Amino acid sequence: MSRPRSQAEYLARLVPPSVAGLNRRSLLAGAAGTGALLGTGLLAGCGSDSDSGSDSKTVSVGSNQSDPKPKDVIAKVMAGFQTASGIQPAVNTVDHNTFQENINNYLQGKPDDVFMWFAGYRMRFFAAKGLAGDVSDVWGKLSGYSDAFKKASTGDDGKQYFVPASYYPWAVFYRKSVWQQHGYQVPKNLDELNTLGAQMKKDGLAPIAFADKDGWPAMGTFDILNLRINGYQFHVDLMAGKEAWTSDKVKKVFDTWAGLLPIHQPDALGRTWQEAAQSLQQKKSGMYLLGLFVAQQFSNDEQDDLDFFTFPEIDPAIGAKALDAPIDGYMMARKPKSEANAKKLLEYVGSKDAANITVKNDPSTLVANTGADTSGYTALQKKAAELVGSATEIAQFLDRDTRPDFASTVIIPALQQFIKNPKDISGLLTSIENQKKSIFTS
Amino acid sequence: MSDLPLIQADRAVPPPATTTSTGGRGRRLRLLSRTDRVVITLMVLVPLLLVTALVWLPALATVLLSGTDWDGIGPFGEIDWVGLKNYDDVVNIYPPFVPAVQNNLLWLAALFVVATPFGMFLAVLLDKELRGSRFYQTALYLPVVLSLALIGFVWQLIYSRDEGLLNAVLGTDTDWYGDPNVNIWAVLFAAGWRHVGYIMLLYLAGLKGVDPSLREAAAVDGSSEASTFFRVVFPVMRPINIIVLVVTVIESLRAFDLVWVINKGRNGLELISALVTSNVVGEASRIGFGSALATIMLVVSLVFIALYLTTVMREDRR
């Protein structure tokens, strides 16, 4: 039976499976955009678009603002820069997650002159590796930034590597109309939050909308509980790998969280944050702990119905004044094609003119420059700015305050494991601690 | 066999036997012109270089890097050697590893026991030249044409807990993608949906090639339809069966795209390939650790490749 009986059979035999699958494979890689090589090609390809115009009248910008609204805002800011300076900015927009995943290859390849990134550990990490340009002299020309923002833009060597553009606080959002209808009051402490949750359940609502399919939203819950129970400094030390995850302090965070899980929306692991936000929008959930960007899921005439409060106090000695408010902004490549143009652009995006454009066009974020004319803010934005202004400490967010390899390969699966099975906290914490030791010593 | 000269060429590859035809073949080889020889050399060399550069060197590099803690940044000179630490970590302190191995095996079993036989069954049905068989053929093959990433998206619309079609139709609130007891089956169904079409087409090609006189002979001998298939057609298609088997094994080993699109291979959908990706690609950049996972996968693949090659080579020798 070894010989094929017909030509068709013979031909079928000739095709190795690896070849038969090749097309589909490469197609897939293109669609998912996850292949490292491919990603580099993609990003590097974008970068080289601007090679042709190195006549010092252009500057290229790598943007991760791929959602329609923020993308539109960036386009308007860049148009403003062109008018003001006569330099032509070329924006290369890459999907937000893809951008993030390929940042290593991107920065080591041919990055754009200026690129968007985040403040915090993630910025300091690349600055320390020599993959970002020093922009200290741009900071000499910037005005309207508090010391907190300057500190968040400073690398380990004391130089600035980052220009903040916008930020958004994390808080508990709710619909005013739903709360008025049922007569709910903002909870001041954990007990009141539990009581409110129980009441919402009786009223047929999922008390706290919850989603963690993407892995990161639950980090917000962990962060805020940790900030309320153990305070800001412990958050910083824990994220820096200096504190043990097996300590009673961390255990208390998870115990408290386990106590709150029953008033969270069930089946969070199959839901995206957008879907959870939709349940709030559709008045099926009572509240939702998320960043200010939750407003994107509400139509313009619903924006006024959206309100928030900061997560209530748990320990009176710690208070409720610390919060997560991640900062987004710009960095410069280590060797931009035109450093002068790149710095001009950074100066512009850090100016109040650029901030004013953002204020006018994006109701879901806050501008970092205090000199901006914020009279165009919605009530929600004004309140958010006040909240951040009154915060004693501002954390960046779990995955922006720690090593990326630790956050994505250890913490995400661990938090999902906890949500799946909130009973075995000690085992989980031991596992995290073992992995942390291995990663932080490498 | 005389109508298949290609096969004869194939048979000519083994070293010349001590028959009288040896001289003839040798002379034919010497008759190759200079150009022919250059072309043949190039045809061997170019693919050899490509395979070496694109397959063997990266594979070797992966094995080497698995002994380091490289984070993907900086020159090679700064890479630190950590020995077998990564393997130790993978097995002992990395919780997703064991579920990943289990899921890969489950994937293999599901494709092998359910999807592949079903694909064969459909091929047999379509081979009967039913009315509209071309339509069915196209419909069943369609998922194979789509990328798995797209398939993941399509099924997302069906499986979403709050807004998905399935829960809306059934009136349930099953968390198809989020419940780790359910999601692997939901994903396997989607993967199988696609795999069935692939197998069907391969098998259909094989069935079309079966000599009709064999069936006629069986029919004349009074064999039933089923026994004709199992006793005559199926054994005749041995080469196709092996291809189908290998395709199934490879598909289950490289399963990745679907779970990656759904939740990056976490929470019940762990696969070794997804773990490799989440460690190596992306911000994490644990190149050393991810390479250790990749090496483990390479070893597992080698077992199946070796099995396949021994089977095929034994076949050729016969």
UniProtKB/TrEMBL annotation, chain A:
Keywords: Sugar transport, Transport
A Pfam family the protein falls into: SBP_bac_1
Signal sequence interval, chain numbering: none
InterPro entries: Bact_solute-bd_prot1, SBP, TAT_signal
Feature: compositional bias, Low complexity: 47-63
Region (Disordered): 47-69
Protein name, UniProt field: Multiple sugar transport system substrate-binding protein
UniProtKB/TrEMBL annotation, chain B:
Keyword Cytoplasm: no
Domain of life (superkingdom): Bacteria
Keyword Repressor: no
One annotated Gene Ontology cellular component of this protein: plasma membrane
Any GO BP annotation: transmembrane transport
Keywords, sorted A to Z: Cell membrane, Membrane, Transmembrane, Transmembrane helix, Transport
Membrane-spanning residues: 38-61, 105-126, 138-158, 184-205, 287-309
Record's subcellular location: Cell membrane
PROSITE patterns according to UniProt: ABC_TM1
Similarity annotation: Belongs to the binding-protein-dependent transport system permease family.
Full protein name: Carbohydrate ABC transporter membrane protein 1 (CUT1 family)
Protein source organism: Micromonospora kangleipakensis
